[in-house]
Amino acid sequence: MGRPKEAAEYALGDIPEPLQPQFVNLGKKAYEVGLTDAQLKGLTETILADFNTNLDVQTGKMDESKTAIKGEYGDATPDKLKNASDFAKLLGFDEAFAGAIGEGVVGLDNMKAFDKLMDGFESPGPRIGHEVGGEITNLTPAQAEEQLTLMQNNKDHAFNNPADPQHANAKAKFVELVRSAEAGKK
User: Fold this and answer.
1) Both 100 and 19 in a single domain?
2) In which domain, by residue range, is 49 found?
3) pLDDT by residue, tens only, the chain of 186 residues
4) Among the four residues 3, 27, 38, 51, which has the most C-beta atoms within 10 Å?
């Protein structure tokens, strides 16, 4: 039960797969500083106990979030979560964030804020297929996606500049582009 001959010989026990690379590194460091197998095992058990406690706390918070969101939105919860997740993706958020929204683990306050943001895009204004800045825009969902990307990526576009006199029209166009893009996903 002393110090092993090589770092790989430490008996680390049952390490969850996602954590194994970190514990291999821990074993290498333990070997460098001369820890015995028993010392590293004790350290590993402490780290895993702390990890599991934190994981339990996080799981509890996620469950509380799901319950609170369900309490707020009732039977509409699945649709609200899906719409919010789809909207997050459309706005360019990564899959992890959009997935967290879709799972309902972002917390009720965050969900309400995101819901309010979605409601903000239900603003009145020009509609696709109507006159917008002198152009008639009848776009396919794919064209709408392309236009959304162009708007979002152009820092000089009126949509991205609230001080621009055309910002309100650009925002209304953005909303309609979102609707057109979403129509192609149904």
Assistant:
1) yes
2) 14-112
3) 588 888 888 887 788 888 888 888 888 888 999 999 889 888 888 888 888 888 888 889 889 989 999 998 898 888 888 888 888 887 778 888 888 888 988 888 888 887 777 766 654 444 444 334 434 345 677 777 888 888 888 888 888 888 888 877 788 778 777 777 776 665
4) 27
Flag whether 168 is in a domain: yes
Identify whether the C-beta of residue 88 lies closer than 8 Å to the C-beta of residue 97: yes
**Residue at token pair 């609200």:** 80
pTM of the predicted model, to two decimals?
A: 0.49
Query: Helices (H), strands (E): how many in the chain?
Result: 7, 2
In a domain? residue 81: yes
What six digits make up the tokens of 153?
A: 């990526």
At residue 97, what is the residue type? F
Kindly state whether residue 117 falls inside one of the protein's structural domains.
no
Is residue 8, in this structure, part of any structural domain at all? no
Interatomic CA distance for residues 127 and 131, integer angstroms: 8
Rounded to an integer, what is the distance from CA 14 to the centroid of its chain?
Answer: 30
